[in-house]
């Protein structure tokens, strides 16, 4: 008997006394939890997002829509970036006119090629104020998951207040369940047994979030 057969046998025995017309799981489990915690205005929700992003060591910038390309261009220049990875569908108004090589998001790109790119600019699907989390789901303007994991510098543009929600339940309502999502709370970081924090181990060392109103 294989391991698979043993596991399935245990499942069948555990369900032997469950009637076939038993209530589905979705109706059997009470889901009366709170969707939001307190009442915040749109401006207060954006402020909370900025505060929690900064608490996770993300660098937060704010600007008007017309200023986005200038801010992104300044961040690339300050970083000394000579190349930037641009996912398909990214808003052209978010990028500076020149001064940096644009690299397309290609399925055939190798990890080594992605590692040579200095920065990546993406949009997002939604941002969660209570947790300081940016969620990407691979939609146009966000690209493949790996482009935000290999390059060392990630600039993420968030449209506020439209893309900002207070809580995780509200964010889940906006996401398509069958799309792979990446949840980002600050730059990639880990700690060893002595709690020494190391950034950039399994993702960008620097996360900059541009809140565009």
UniProtKB/TrEMBL annotation:
UniProt cross-references to InterPro entries, sorted A to Z: FTHF_cligase-like_sf, LUD_dom, NagB/RpiA_transferase-like
Record domain LUD: where: 49-212
Classification via Pfam families: LUD_dom
Highest rank taxon of the organism: Bacteria
Coiled-coil segments: none
Protein name, UniProt field: Lactate utilization protein C
């Amino acid at each position: 008997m294989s391991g698979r057969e043993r596991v399935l046998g245990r499942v069948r025995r555990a369900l032997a006394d469950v009637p076939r017309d038993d209530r589905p799981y979705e109706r059997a489990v009470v889901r009366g939890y709170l969707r939001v915690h307190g009442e915040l205005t749109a401006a207060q929700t954006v402020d909370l997002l900025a505060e929690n992003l900064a608490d996770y060591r993300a660098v937060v910038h704010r600007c008007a829509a017309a200023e986005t390309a200038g801010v992104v261009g300044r961040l690339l220049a300050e970083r000394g970036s000579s190349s930037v990875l641009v996912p398909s569908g990214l808003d052209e108004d978010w990028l500076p006119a020149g001064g940096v090589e644009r690299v397309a998001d290609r399925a055939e790109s190798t990890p080594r090629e992605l590692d040579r790119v200095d920065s990546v600019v993406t949009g997002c699907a939604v941002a969660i104020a209570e947790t300081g989390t940016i969620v990407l789901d691979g939609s146009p303007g966000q690209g493949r998951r790996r482009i935000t994991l290999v390059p060392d510098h990630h600039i993420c543009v968030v449209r506020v207040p439209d893309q900002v929600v207070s809580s995780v339940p509200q964010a889940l309502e906006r996401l398509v369940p069958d799309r792979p999502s990446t949840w980002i709370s600050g730059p990639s970081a880990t700690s060893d047994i002595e709690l020494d924090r190391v950034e950039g181990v399994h993702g960008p060392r620097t996360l900059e979030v541009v809140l565009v109103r």
